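Data card: per-record layout.
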Amino acid sequence: MGPTAPAGAAVDNVVGSTSRLETRAQLEFDRDVSLPLTLLRNAELRGGYIQFSRANPADMQLIEAPLSNLENAIKVRRKLLDTLHEDDLLARKKADEDALRPLLKTSALDPWAQIESGVARERELYLPYTFIESGTGFNSILFRYARLLLRGSDERVKPNDTRLREYTDSALPHIEQQLYARVPIYAEVETLTLSFSLQRMQEWLGPDHPLVRRLLARDSPESLATRVVAETRLSDAGERKRLWEGGRAAVDASRDPMIELARSIDGDARALRKQFDDDVEAPIVAASATIANERFKAFGTQVYPDATFTLRLNYGTVTGWTRDGAVVEPFTYLGRAFERANGVSPFKIPDSWMRVKERLDMRVPFCISTNNDIVGGNSGSPLIDAEGRMVGLVFDGNIDSIAGAYWFDASNNRTVVVHPAIIREALEQVYGAKALLAELGAS
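The structure for this 443-residue chain is written out next.
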């Protein structure tokens, strides 16, 4: 007998962002430009990480976390790209726009045409903006510190309402938290990622791009990255704190090579940002607001707004799905994990679990799948049954749920939840957390 499935379940969560109300032109931009180019860069960097670890296997631990994060990003973006190649999605988007367009009576401008114009400009700016202002050409923790210090020293002397939005007073505590954190920084990895990103910028913007020519006229990407990483002092949290607290005078006086690198491109980056803000972001935001207002007038709360990390209560039921013609049941059990275990990642079970294997109940439910509508950012949300009891914690979705960024398909998108029974089994049998169990009221 499996566990009893509640008749209904609700997820009380802080929702991540979605793009379900973007126009067809915006989705086509993601499909044709941003996702393919991002996937290409990420795949190449993944190869660089793997080659780095093979040259010296002891270095694998240095790139294990960033490699895992990168592989997860590749998985997500591949599924998003697949979704945007589904004819049904764009056909539905066109039908929605065609239905709403005749209702638009309060604006002299066609907001969809305005967005198309903004997207066309975005296509022109995409590569230089991505590599220079977004920092993709300078993939380095140390460079990010340098830019925070440089721009922070410039922005903090301005009135709060005229600053770049990421340097307003409300954002400063988070910046200080980043700068003051004593986190390990590995020069070998920094050199790898910075040289790789400089290479890609040189390749994609071209050797004759003014900024590329200025940076790399006498340096190769590898030699520039090696030099600035070796000579910077920004790996020292104390030095970062000194510069931040010293403000503009301290940063202006600094000859740290990473800060000088950030300073050398800042004018170009700010100019690109202004072009993007004026030509792309501002008209698209204005047109999107017009469409949203008309949509609300026409359909009210039948169409809820895109998620923006706002608190929501979402209803669903415990259910499986069909994958490649096979039914996937809504519950998994602990025994299945041991059936798959082969001692090698990703199917390596921790030694702490292997030592107590004989004490574990292999019939304990591990995960539940539901048709709640979630996206990335929902992990940790409680699953609540119809009687108000917490019956699980959200931590993932099936592969189809990634498409939820663009649309929700109730037949395939599934939330994956940790069952309370496995939490108790782990605390009791594996970790011996008796005090925590008692605090939670487990009987």
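Known properties of this structure: The longest strand covers residues 390-397. Residues 179 and 342 are 41 Å apart (CA to CA).

See the next section for split statistics.
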